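Thread title: Can someone regenerate the structure for this chain?

I was given the following input by a collaborator and told the matching structure tokens would be attached. They weren't. Posting the sequence so someone can regenerate them.
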Amino acid sequence: MIKRRNICKWIMLIVCISFLLLGSASANNSELNNSEYNEISDPSIKEFANDPSFIAYRGTLPETIDQKWENSIANCWLNLTRMGPSYSEFDSSIKSVAASDVIIVELGSAYKGKVDDSKINEIYQKIEDYCKQKEGISEVPVVFMWAHDEEDLPLPDYGPQIFEEVKNESGFIATRGTMPVITDASEKVEWGETAGNCIHSFTDELDHYMLENSGPVVGYGYNYRGYIFVEFDKKSPENVNESIIDEIYLIIDDHSKQEGVSEVPVVFEWGEVPRLDDLPADEIPDVNESNGVNLSGNEEETTGNKTANQIPGFTSTLSVLGILSLLVFKHPYR
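Best answer:
Regenerated them for you:
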């Protein structure tokens, strides 16, 4: 017969072990969020922290967010996107980079369980050093999030019908190249990866045409419907014509051929300079249509409609809440 005193000892032991186990589990679940770097007090950061995809926060958000800060953080992000679509120089777990008042880094969900507090600190240090070198920002604020799974975004069958659909959309200017016919799911993913390699190959040369370098281009990237897109500044339609479209396509096509892709499909469309705050739509003066190509900057599209057709990995966007998995590769203008 077990003595009452022994029973009490067993109960106390079980209770202690239970508390230890619960404490350990709690520590593991919040290991990335409760470090000395993650004492979150800023309301805008808490919004991220309330998202189930939130991992951790590093750096310091200034008390005053002015235009100078917005320009600096945007250009810091710009320089980071130039490292994409592969960010292996920072860490192979990085899937995409976006920005608002902070830098948002999405890590691939396949790395869950492999990313710990030490790894976050390591990645952050590389990003901070990079932004300090490029923009002079110390303690750049970075939010780490888990990327949404791409399987959640259905991919349509690729083919000539995609170009026909795009021609009916607001903001459309012209198409070049030929849409590949792809219906197999795995082949669509492979095509997307190939398109990403093409983009990476022509980034340096296309940068000369960016708005920040007095060019007409405000962004470019990969659309999940299977084509590369190039966005022209809708505020300056007078700078866009058939000649500049052909000139830019030649650059893209030449580099893509080196990646094994001939007649790479490209859609040219109107876009605008990324801003960190929502801005009212701007009216753009009409110009005459030429050779069936829409060169008018007037459009009714919304940011939401546009980003709904984009996939992560190759692009980045400044709209970060709710659409982090749908990213656009744009270059902001200082």
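The chain is about 35% helix and 15% strand.
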